[in-house]
Write a structure and sequence with these properties.
377 residues, alpha/beta, nine-stranded mixed sheet, 16 helices, 12% strand, globular, binds iron/sulfur cluster
Length: 377
């Protein structure tokens, strides 16, 4: 008998995914594999209403992401409204489109913070992984961000193809004057799952990367804070995904679908509401999509009787679906999961030669793969 989900507090984080359009083609992109079939985007006035409703609900942080949010020519209008409402605003960008003029306009609109992604510290790997010539542009954008006085977060997704460059990546971020560096190990959903055999690092590579990071932290102290987001595949432990389903994060996809996390739309049997049809308050507190996996009442064994269940809430529902084909299963990264062998086998294979080529995020690949969904492993 499952208990009613707990009444949540407000969503503190509102993530506005303004568009799935993006000029880059990252092999680990977290956008849906079928993004090319999802071209519908909310209008400016819809976003402004969503911002107002989110703030009235209690949201205090507003992330503006995509795709590439700078492809929306109403970004300044959206930022201005978010700032007027009192959000702390954060732009998550590849840098493409952030000219000095646009940066000045966003600063004037009240943007608080910019997170700039790099794919690597070398031009060759950065440009290869994104399938674009963007390394030079990103370097210029980093200077533009500093010129505007924004605190700068550099974000680098880490995987087998760049993990040996961690030392150079940290040195690059420090030289660019970043206040924060996020070394985010790849999460294996969407495009990253398609490329998992090429991207998953070995345990030895991870240990080395963590040691290099620790040495830099010691050297730099508070001059640059370095976050190393460890990969759950290698830890044998599930993570409290999005800090708990429907507990803190509210994502709005480009077409207005409201989600507890940006990948949850893949889960079968769940109807997620759309902000065009319902207000955020009703969506957050009352919708089936947000309530289904709140708390612990939905759990099956082994989670249901596990003494860790309040700490990790059974891990990630998308990962459970992708690896165990059951969104209510124990996250297979947990060594207590009956499907943990699938994760252990992938880790054991890491580093072995892979015959198939990388699949780049691209509209033609999206259209080809879209019918296959997210390709459960
Ligand atoms: S991960 Fe790369 S391709 Fe995907 S939205 Fe971000 S910059 Fe674009
Ligand atoms: S069995 Fe479930 S609750 Fe227990 S540690 Fe694993 S994921 Fe967490």
């Amino acid at each position: 008998m499952s208990a009613a989900p707990p009444r949540p507090g407000p969503p503190l984080w509102l993530l506005a995914e303004l568009t799935y359009r993006c000029p880059l083609h990252c092999v680990f992109c977290y956008n849906p594999v079928d993004f090319a079939q999802q071209q519908d985007e909310l209008r400016t006035e819809d976003w402004l209403r969503v911002l107002r409703e989110g703030r009235a609900l209690g949201a205090v942080q507003c992330g503006l992401s995509g795709g590439e949010p700078l492809l929306r020519d109403d970004l300044e209008v959206i930022v201005a409204e978010a700032a007027r409402l009192g959000y702390y605003t954060n732009l998550l960008t590849s840098g493409v489109g952030l000219t000095a003029e646009r940066a000045a306009a966003l600063k004037a609109a009240g943007l608080d913070h910019v997170q700039l992604s790099f794919q690597d510290s070398t031009r060759e790997m950065n440009d290869f992984l994104s399938h674009t010539k963007t390394f030079g542009l990103k370097s210029r954008v980093a200077a533009i961000i500093k010129d505007q006085g924004w605190p700068m977060v550099l974000n680098v997704v880490v995987h087998r193809l760049n993990i040996a460059h961690i030392d150079r990546i940290i040195a690059m971020a420090h030289a660019m004057g970043a206040e924060y560096l996020e070394l985010a190990n790849t999460q294996y959903y969407s495009w990253a799952l398609l490329n998992r055999d090429q991207l998953l690092p070995t345990a030895a590579q991870l240990r080395e990367a963590e040691a290099v990071t620790a040495a830099w932290r010691e050297r730099l102290g508070d001059a640059m804070r370095i976050f190393f987001v460890a990969p759950d595949y290698h830890e044998g432990q599930a993570k409290k995904c999005v800090n708990g389903w429907g507990s803190m994060f509210l994502t709005v996809a480009p077409d207005g679908t409201a989600l507890p996390c940006h990948t949850a739309k893949m889960l079968p049997g769940l109807a997620f509401p759309n902000v065009r049809e319902q207000g955020l308050r009703e969506i957050w507190f009352d919708s089936e999509g947000f309530n289904r996996y709140r708390g612990t009442g939905w759990m099956q064994e082994p989670c249901a009787s596990c003494d860790q269940r309040e700490q990790d809430l059974g891990g990630c529902r998308c990962q459970a679906f992708l690896l165990a084909q059951d969104p209510a299963a124990t996250d297979p990264v947990c060594r207590k999961s009956p499907q943990h062998a699938r994760v252990a086998e992938a880790v054991a294979r890491a580093g072995a030669p892979v015959a198939q080529p990388l699949v780049f995020r691209a509209p033609e690949n999206s259209r080809r793969l879209g019918a296959q969904g997210t390709a459960p492993a």
